[in-house]
Amino acid sequence: MKVYKKESVQHINATLDECWAFFSSPENLQKITPKSMGFEITDFDGQSMYAGQIIQYKISPLLGLKLNWVTEITQVKDRAYFIDEQRFGPYSFWHHKHFFEATLNGVKMTDVVHYALPFGFLGRIVNALIVKNKLSEIFDYRFQKVNELFNSKS
Question: Under CATH, which architecture does the 4-151 domain have?
Answer without folding.
Answer: 2-Layer Sandwich (3.30)
